[in-house]
């Protein structure tokens, strides 16, 4: 991280009410973790002229606490051209003055939108988009309050969408204050899951310890407090004995009541963290970010579904029924997740990752392959960061994404994408289609889904892997062609880099249910097809292969699977070859491992398979079936889903849930483990830490 500097950018001035608790305290906390930030605040030009002395005083106060330089710069109207141009010039000048690499923490949509221009012009600048709220609903609330016309509202919404898209699309990492806001940003902007994390509004676990001393003996209390307590964390008041219950009753309950609104669904009020970290039960409205769910799950107060006074009184009675000391201890312990110190450590790790520039393969918007500098991935809870040694290129899956110079091939691909979009619209809805379209329309997308290497770091909750362990990783959202990747724990197993691709072939073979001595045809001898041939040969099957390329047929014939026969794509040749090997009966099963929008391969398979035979679709092919052959032979047609059960279940992969063997034995993780070496799949002995030096990151 040598040569890197850190800048906090915001467009809100330096008002003490929010900035001290949400910005300054955070900068102080990460400084204790070894990261020092300078702060650049963009203020309204007219207000800056009126309150220059106030801003000067605030700069001195904030700089004294954070240890970095603090500047307030007047900015032209942020809704015009001056805001992006002026801020871009400021950031470029900052980077030129500092040298090295510049990591910018941009708070709110506009600050990140401005930073995106500088990051695109200067590859030495990386920025984090710290999203504090859902822009469109916030604008709609303002539009109602200021009685904007429909035309003004529509124009403002378009502007907010443009700003939000620019802020998110070019960010190295995105932070959201709640899971609801995270999910909205992912759906709206197509953000990859490895680039976004939830960091709620937090409170300082140390500063929240505050003593209110009520006593008639002020001098003796002041003497003891100066000797035993930290200055600024106590207050001494003279109170008669009869007045003490009034002070105590004032801190029995925290209230956080808001009207139902989409804006509140994505919110995370700082006051909530302060309440629960002091052990106060909270009376809260339903639908306030993750806060309402926390209260309901932890029994930290009561959730009001509707603004009903009678329900509020009943909820208060239930809260008061529990012993105060027991309740406060339990709530404060559960609220440790909102401690600023915890997130300061995680943020410091993120800043260090962004300061390191590694090499990674991307697919550009034009369809070209690019090797670019990228920030090192963060290692979150339940995740493993891997120093990649090998990354497998799938010639079928990945090369199909490249722009083809052949017009016919490009048209076929466009037709196939249109069909896929129509099917996704029917099965998953418009929101998912738009999300995928935004991902494809992005500046670049990471490539790869099967890697192997050594563990560089493990996140919390990972207890059975240690740095230095040899592992394999799978998943198109995680296992990219990069020097380092971070993946969920239960997708990482001791294996080789082909384990993920092998699991795809293994799942297809399992779906075919082959028996010893059966004849199985494999159509499409690419990477997955070659592995399927080897698995079927090891299972005692007679394997025949089909592929347009003669070199692939010869490779499968000479490999461990040992094809007994092979042919090209001609339907008559395929049918004749299969019948010659099966005494005219046809193949017992066919694995369709090809990738094409055409339906010719599957209809050819229907003619080549025997009566009541089995056809398993492993690749992506057209499904315009010829009914006659399908009907007369009573063919069993089966789809194979990638690595197996759990592949597309968000609770199984990224959220590390497990399924019992009785529910699904051949789940995705088991397939990847089985595709690895037997020793890797069964070993329980932790490997010794690696002595190999970590690969140095490529510099911009």
Mean pLDDT: 76
**Ends apart, CA distance between termini:** 13 Å
Q: Can you count the beta strands?
A: 26
CA-based gyration radius = 30 Å
Shape: elongated
- The helix count comes to 26
Structural class comes to alpha/beta
> Spans of 5+ residues with little confidence (pLDDT < 50)?
403-409, 438-443, 488-495, 677-700
What characterizes the major β-sheet? 7 strands, parallel
Share of helix, binned: 40-55%
- The fraction of residues in strands falls at 15-25%
Descriptive key words:
single chain; 700 residues; alpha/beta; 7-stranded parallel sheet; 6-stranded parallel sheet; 26 strands
Walk me through the structure:
This protein has 700 residues and is an alpha/beta fold. The protein contains 26 helices and 26 strands. Strands 3-2-1-4-5-6-7 form a 7-stranded parallel sheet, with helices on both faces. Strands 23-22-21-24-25-26 form a 6-stranded parallel sheet, with helices on both faces. A 5-stranded antiparallel sheet has the order 19-15-17-18-20. Strand 24 (587-592), helix 23 (600-608) and strand 25 (609-617) form a beta-alpha-beta unit. Helix 1 (16-32) runs parallel beside helix 3 (52-66), helix 4 (82-98) packs across helix 5 (109-121) and helix 19 crosses helix 25. The longest helix is centred in the middle third of the chain and has 22 residues, at 407-428. It is elongated, with a radius of gyration of 30 Å.
